[in-house]
Amino acid sequence: QGQLVESGGGLVQPGGSLRLSCAASGFTLDNYSIGWFRQAPGKEREGVSCISSSDGRTYHADSVKGRFTISTDNAKNTVYLQMNSLKPEDTAVYYCAALSSIEGTVLAMCAMTLAEYWGQGTQVTVSS
Fold first, then answer.
1. Please, is 124 exposed, middle or buried when counting C-beta atoms within 10 Å of its C-beta (0-12, 13-18, 19+)?
2. Which among 19, 59, 98, 126 has the fewest CB atoms less than 10 Å away?
3. Are the beta carbons of 61 and 35 closer than 8 angstroms?
4. For each successive 10 residues of the chain (128 residues), what is the average pLDDT?
């Protein structure tokens, strides 16, 4: 019933910034948690930043704290990931995902990679 579409990925130099967008359709974000996950070749998918659209509670992986910011625009049914001070180790495919508050908490979503809907992913490459 729901669909998520990521955009904004691309090539950026180390130290640069990039903003990813995740547009939701078929459902409203009001009672959902939304998360950004990433997966590099040969590595497990990991939770990066997650947010509850209803109360604003957030989770960030230690590796991105102070550099990444997750936010929502419920009027546009869209979630953003602002990435600053990018490093080569941030290179990965980034996915957005949604989890109903009925099914789980925002902490469970990011820590356990728990979601009902997944986007197709967008490539982020940090290189000179």
1. buried
2. 19
3. no
4. 95 98 94 95 95 88 96 93 98 96 86 94 97
